[in-house]
Amino acid sequence: MDDILTKLEEVLEQRKSAKVDESYVSSLYNKGMDEILKKINEESAEVIMAAKDSANDKIIYEVADLWFHTLVLLRFKEIKVDQITNELSKRFGLSGLQEKANRRNN
Predict the structure, then answer these.
(1) Each residue of 22-66: pLDDT tens digit?
(2) Are 2 and 81 in contact (CB under 8 A)?
(3) What average pLDDT does this structure show over 97-106?
(4) In this structure, which topology does domain 4-104 adopt according to CATH?
(5) How far apart are CA 48 and CA 67, in angstroms?
(6) Is 78 left (phi over 0), alpha (psi -120 to 50) or beta?
(7) Per-residue H/E/C for the chain
(8) Structural domain boundaries of the chain?
């Protein structure tokens, strides 16, 4: 799974130097954090609506959009996919209750 995320990460990094009028991602970077967050908010709402409709194909489509825009945010903030997968790996095997307790202690 992370192979496609890594490939997308590379493309999203390349889009930082693309012309705004030639790249959707470049235009998002150019508009800044608020516009990227607005897209994530919009995509999150669409995932919720798709889930309420109980249409799995629609949920998959909308989650892909949400993940894409989250990756845009990560590249905008210079956060690598590896940092996220490492964090998930650290949490793997921990119960949700344990993970939340660990947060309180940090």
Answers:
(1) 999 999 999 999 999 999 999 999 999 999 998 899 999 999 999
(2) yes
(3) 75
(4) Helix Hairpins (1.10.287)
(5) 14
(6) left
(7) CHHHHHHHHHHHHHHHHCCHHHCHHHHHHHHCHHHHHHHHHHHHHHHHHHHHHCCHHHHHHHHHHHHHHHHHHHHHCCCCHHHHHHHHHHHCCCCHHHHHHHHHHC
(8) 4-104
